[in-house]
Amino acid sequence: MTRSQDTPAGGGAATRAEAALDSPLLPLADDALVLSHRLGEWAGHAPVLEEELALANIALDLLGQARVLYSQLGDEDELAFLREERSFRNCQLVEQPNGDFACTMVRQLFFSACQELLFGQLAELGDPLASKAVKEAEYHRDHAEHWTIRLGDGTEESHARTQRAVDGLWRYTGELFEPLPGPAPVGAVDWAALRAGWTERVTRVLTSATLTVPDSPQSGAWAAGAGRQGLHTEPFGRMLAEMQHLHRSHPGASW
Amino acid sequence: MGPHLTIEPNDRSVGGAASAVGKGVEMTSVLLGEGAQSSEGPADPLADFEGAIAADERIEPRDWMPDDYRKTLVRQMAQHAHSEIIGMQPEANWITRAPSLRRKAILMAKVQDEAGHGLYLYSAAETLGTSREELLDKLHSGRQKYSSIFNYPTLTWADVGAIGWLVDGAAITNQVPLCRCSYGPYARAMIRVCKEESFHQRQGFELLLALSRGTEAQHAMAQDAVDRWWWPSLMMFGPPDDESAHSARSMAWKIKRHSNDELRQRFVDICVPQAEALGLTLPDPDLRWNEERGHWDFGPIDWEEFRQVLQGNGPCNEERIGRRRQAHEDGAWVRDAAAAYAAKRGTGRPAAQAVAQEQPRAQAQTQDQHDGETAVSPR
Ligand SMILES: [Fe+2]
Ligand SMILES: [Fe+2]
User: How large is the ipTM?
Assistant: First the structure.
């Protein structure tokens, strides 16, 4: 399933699928689905019972967002279960394996701080769906922020783990601010302002967590924006294999 | 764990905390020897306790109670709480493979509910002076048990449906009477739990129905799951009445309201027509309607299997407890960090409370999920 802008459209379904691949909503939907899936992997493994509830909450919010967005683009299950790795447009940050709890919380902080600002802008641009989602993103960011501060400023061990998480995930953050071309409202987002707002917020959180803001680049040798072009990291393929296997084993079945 | 059928909405236990506290105060004053009002001399706490039980009143945390009553309750609530959190594992096993986004959302919400049930129940046990920490420690060291049903594996997607329909269904049958349990906090926790378990039971039924009416392979998957889960579900009600160690006393104290065999029969009677509606069969050649009894007769249960699983020889005993321990150990540094941070801020709260801020929202959301997702009712 490759994206071929030059080929004239075949059937109606193909046209729709290709239009979906070009929509700036697809990266947003894929971000939400993939991060939701990763958070779902925590079920039964959380460090305290309260976090079983909180992680599931965030995962459910994100899954809800993904479903709303996919439904604007086509069939949600077709989009989630029948695309190959190279057709997914999520950023590489969200596909990163959970690691330890610090890693999961820092990943969440980086992502949700961005999503909150992005949905905030979309809501101002008049997107009705964004105004609900922005409240969710705010809660996710707030939750991750509290944990980042507790862990950063907790014990020596938690501090070290959290700094390691920040340093390790930092290079995936640049991609969050890559403009998503397309029609408004996503096409009208001010990405520079988003980046500035994110940097300000994240710097403030890391500082009050007694953590160091990395001065390393925010993207790796694969240029920022790779995930948006369907270039993913190795663990993502295995994640998709697990997620899609059952659905694909019963072609055409309904569940 | 999930069980359920319908709960009785008019149950008196909904009386709420205020009335419960009121009663506690009243009884305490009697115990403190303000027995001058009584012409029968000094207050007899045991007589008060037995009087309250006989009058179907609730016992509240501040009331005097016999040591054995307290111990029995702590043991039962702890085992119940442990079952809720161990019970997350077999279903969480399928979250990452759920075959549609809708099913994925329902399953995540369900597993989240079970965590919430664990929380309510540990809190209810705390009212008797036993901390969650202490109880988890007993679970991890094997000194307290959880329901044996969770020592069976979830091998296919249909197992998620079979657990919802049968395991949550059996749990509901067990737990609805507990909404009238003599111990107030337990009864009130069960009311909340039963409401959610009934969603789980319906969702499980609906999942199986979709499979049963689906492709041939899907139908076979559903039948196979029911074949594997049916007998273990019947064992969830515990040993036959004549072999049940604690039953009689628990019934006298109104902790338990019906015998194991009575509840098991009730469950079978509920399931037979539901299986028919599903287009699936129950794996029991002896199942037949008994006109005289007005109940379904069913075949003998393999109690040897039950004992084996109980003793740790089930297919997943080690895996379940091992994973629980692992999660707890892996999380130790997180709980330590939360406690250290709280101490620095001078709030001095233990780790569990230091992170307890998310609950109200969690429950609200879960309810939304249920409301949005429950399509078909089994009855
Ligand atoms: Fe439960
Ligand atoms: Fe349940």
Answer: 0.93
- CB-nearest to B218 from A41, A49, A250 is A250
Domain CATH code at residue A49: 1.20.1260.10
Q: Name residue, tokens 């604007």.
A: A72
Query: Shortest Cα distance from B265 to chain A (angstroms)?
Result: 32
Asked if residue A102 belongs to a domain, the reply is yes
Give domain status of residue A6, yes or no: no
Residue at A87 is within a domain: yes
Q: Which one, of A44, A40, A105, lies nearest residue A66 by Cα? A: A40
Where do the H-state alpha helices sit in B287-375? 303-308, 317-330, 332-344, 351-354, 359-373
Query: Would you tell me which residues 315-374 of chain B have a C-beta closer than 8 angstroms to some C-beta of chain A?
Result: 323, 326-327, 330-338, 340-341, 344, 351-352, 354-359, 361-362, 365, 369
- Nearest-Cα distance to chain B for A248, in Å, is 8
pTM above 0.90, yes or no: no
- B25: which 2 tokens? 């105060």
Q: Domain containing A141: what range? A: 14-249
Cβ of residue A60 closer than 8 Å to a chain B Cβ:
yes
* Measured distance CA(B327)–CA(A135) in Å, rounded: 30
Residue B317 Cα to chain centre, angstroms: 19
Cα–Cα distance measured from residue A146 to residue B345, given in angstroms and rounded to the nearest whole number = 13
Cα separation, B235 vs B96, in Å, equals 29
**pLDDT tens for the 255 residues of chain A, in order:** 333 444 444 445 556 767 788 899 999 999 999 999 999 999 999 999 999 999 999 999 999 999 999 999 999 999 999 999 999 999 999 999 999 999 999 999 999 999 999 999 999 999 988 999 999 999 999 999 999 999 999 999 999 999 999 999 999 999 999 999 999 999 999 999 999 999 999 999 999 999 999 998 888 766 556 899 999 999 999 999 999 999 999 999 999
3-state secondary structure of B119: helix
Residue B298, amino acid: F
Residue corresponding to tokens 């009934």: B198
Number of domains in chain A: 1
CA distances from B196 to A123, A214, B230 (A): 34, 46, 22
User: Residue B162's closest CA among B89, B214, B217, B91?
Assistant: B91
Angle subtended at Cα A43 by Cα A59 and Cα B197, rounded to the nearest 5 degrees = 90
Interchain proximity A151–B334, CB inside 8 Å: yes
Cβ atoms of A106 and A169 closer than 8 Å: yes
Neighbouring CB atoms inside 10 A of B303's CB total 13
Q: Using CA of residue B337, residue B340, residue B343, residue B349, what is the dihedral sign?
A: positive
CA of B96, closest CA in chain A: separation in Å?
A: 5
- Is residue A164 a part of any domain in this protein? yes
Read off the amino acid at residue A127.
D
On whether the CB atoms of residues A162 and A109 are closer than 8 A, the answer is no
Asked if B334 lies within 8 A of A155 by C-beta distance, the reply is no
- Interface mutation vs chain A, best among B96, B103, B329, most A CBs within 10 Å: B96
Give the contacts of B305 (CB within 8 A, at least 6 positions apart): B231, B235
Contacts of B126 (CB under 8 A, 6+ apart): B132
